[in-house]
């Protein structure tokens, strides 16, 4: 069993409009845009990162906004819901805030004794806010949401699968353990993690297969401290039969990827070097940052990429 994984690092999804996506996360949810860069494989598309003040691993939601992308179809083989932790007794505030902003599909529910507020993102993305007592992580305090009501970071994600057994076995190998069951939901938790330590598996054997598009989660990333530890994890995953990519430099972290038995794409990402490697902490997310291999494209990209009004 692995002991190096510390919880979630980031969740990456796809969107249809960069400006709408940016406004939703910064103005409605009150998160900070900590990086404005481009997709390594499609540099004419932004890669936008939102999180806490410095983009702490376990707080970062990232997006590829592809213009004219088709809308994703919900189903099995995907991350169906991304949950953020908020302070206790704040869901009424958040319900009023989301409703005033015209957010869709707002619903109060309770899972495993936790109060959560479900809602949809601009592209139908599945989100929830979960009241968590005593979360020591600090929300972004300089946005439109007061710090005493702000998002601390992720609580976790829900994966919707036709058969959860093989994925549960993989997560157990990754250091998670099953702590509860509720109907079709299996709750797994990582002890002594970074706060973003819950994975729920929803088993729906007869549901349709998901089709990726706007509003779909592309991959979910798990955090390790550094490249040395990442190499240990990669070696162990390969020995366990996972088809793991070589290590890839993503500028702000180093990444490896592998597909899970249930079809969800997992990443293992390092906590180093962080989002301040090329910007001062006070100015994160302001300038367009380009990977070295795309630096020569700056004049064309600055003209072609849509303007994001802050």
Automatic annotation (TrEMBL):
<feature type="domain" description="VOC">
    <location>
        <begin position="153"/>
        <end position="271"/>
    </location>
</feature>
<feature type="domain" description="VOC">
    <location>
        <begin position="7"/>
        <end position="132"/>
    </location>
</feature>
<dbReference type="InterPro" id="IPR029068">
    <property type="entry name" value="Glyas_Bleomycin-R_OHBP_Dase"/>
</dbReference>
<dbReference type="InterPro" id="IPR004360">
    <property type="entry name" value="Glyas_Fos-R_dOase_dom"/>
</dbReference>
<dbReference type="InterPro" id="IPR037523">
    <property type="entry name" value="VOC_core"/>
</dbReference>
<dbReference type="Pfam" id="PF00903">
    <property type="entry name" value="Glyoxalase"/>
</dbReference>
<protein>
    <submittedName>
        <fullName>VOC family protein</fullName>
    </submittedName>
</protein>
<dbReference type="InterPro" id="IPR052537">
    <property type="entry name" value="Extradiol_RC_dioxygenase"/>
</dbReference>
């Amino acid at each position: 069993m692995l002991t190096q994984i510390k919880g979630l690092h980031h969740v990456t999804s796809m969107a249809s409009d960069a400006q709408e996506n940016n406004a939703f996360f910064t103005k409605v949810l009150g998160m900070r845009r900590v990086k404005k860069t481009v997709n390594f494989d499609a540099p004419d598309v932004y890669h936008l990162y939102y999180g806490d003040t410095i983009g702490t691993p376990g707080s970062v939601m990232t997006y590829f906004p592809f213009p004219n992308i088709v809308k994703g179809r919900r189903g099995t083989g995907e991350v169906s819901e991304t949950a953020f932790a908020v302070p206790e007794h704040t869901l009424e505030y958040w319900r009023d805030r989301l409703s005033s902003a015209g957010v869709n599909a707002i619903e109060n529910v309770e899972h495993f004794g936790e109060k959560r507020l479900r809602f949809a993102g601009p592209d139908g993305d599945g989100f929830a806010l979960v009241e968590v007592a005593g979360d020591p992580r600090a929300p972004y305090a300089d946005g439109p949401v007061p710090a005493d009501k702000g998002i601390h970071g992720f609580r976790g994600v829900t994966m919707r699968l036709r058969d959860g057994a093989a994925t549960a076995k993989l997560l157990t190998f990754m250091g998670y353990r099953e702590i509860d069951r509720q109907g079709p939901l299996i709750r797994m938790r990582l002890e002594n993690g970074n706060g973003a330590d819950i994975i729920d598996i929803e088993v729906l054997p007869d549901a349709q297969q998901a089709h990726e598009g706007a509003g779909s989660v592309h991959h979910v990333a798990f955090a390790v401290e550094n490249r040395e530890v990442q190499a240990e994890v990669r070696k162990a995953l390969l020995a366990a039969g996972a088809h793991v990519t070589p290590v890839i430099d993503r500028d702000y972290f180093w990444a490896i990827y592998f597909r899970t038995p249930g079809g969800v794409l997992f990443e293992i990402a390092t906590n180093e070097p962080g989002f301040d490697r090329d910007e001062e902490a006070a100015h994160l997310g302001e300038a367009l940052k380009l990977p070295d291999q795309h630096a020569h494209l700056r004049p064309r990209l600055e003209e072609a990429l849509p303007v994001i009004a802050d």
